[in-house]
Fold this sequence. Notes:
The protein is an alpha/beta fold. The chain has eleven helices and ten strands. The strands form three sheets. The chain has a four-stranded parallel beta sheet with strand order 4-1-10-9, covered by helices on one side. The protein has a four-stranded parallel beta sheet with strand order 5-6-7-8. A two-stranded antiparallel sheet has the order 2-3. Strand 7, helix 7 (203-211) and strand 8 (220-221) form a beta-alpha-beta unit. Helix 2 (57-67) crosses helix 11. The chain is globular, with a radius of gyration of 21 Å.
Amino acid sequence: MSTNLSRRAVLAGTAGGLAMTATTARAGAPKHKFGYCLNTSTVREPDGKGGGKSRAITDLIDIAAKAGYDAIEPWIGELDAYTSGGGKLEDLAKRFKDAGLAVPDAIGFAEWIVEDEGRRKKGLEQAKRDMEKVAKVGGTRLAAPPVGATGGTSKRDDPKFTQPIVDLVAAGDRYRALIDIGEKMGVTPIVEVWGFSKTLRRLGEALLVAAESGSTKGCVLPDVYHLYKGGSDFAGLPLLSASAIGIFHVNDYPKIERDKINDADRVYPGDGVAPLKDVFATLRAMNYTGYLSLELFNREYWKQDPHAVAKTGLTKLKAAAG
């Protein structure tokens, strides 16, 4: 193909594109719209030990629906608590639907990526069970963070052994195994960026694993806080496409050094120093119309009325997203 395009031709094409954009705007093209989701960690309750504990999933549905969210992102443990109490996931699916809430993702912690083959096999079995639960409640995705491979002790006989993954191409093959399991039940696992880990702490690492899976279903889960914590520059986001993002976690953070900041420091969107304006502009430029999920672990918010926290979070999320 010839690359000798004339300057006149380029200018003519640019002018034509601008004219088309103007015409579309005059025609009243629909405004770009995100879906707004509540990650249930945002409205936990104090556990009396300085931390937080999950609320009943039925209460969480009520909180998200009354606040006006489009969707909810539960944790697998919350689904398990519901069934342990005698509930059926099929009934829970109806509750989600009746409340007008989609379930675009759920948070799981299976060891799908670890080096130890035995542990990885058990991790895949757990992931299969988790995805079956997600499918039963009408969900479509499951977060896949690098559980068990975040870094730490290097003693293989230590039950807390968490040797980081060095070969990310091999991790891509392991992710493909996870995708293949989920495909049978209509649930897609999402490679999640974890900024505190030594494996998948950066956006590029997670993207490499997704790309090397050899599957068109490969996708990543970026998180504003984790991108900052892990050292990723937000300038890397434009390298993604809309289809490469399974769901996008939104939060903000105060001016704290990366090595000192932690989960509990997350604040409402717009209350910190994260470059959210640029982040949302990037998502719009790639035509991302998926869900923005508010995920916070702020212990001060946990002490407050959950309905007020959910409502405030949605208001601030929409304001930040423009």
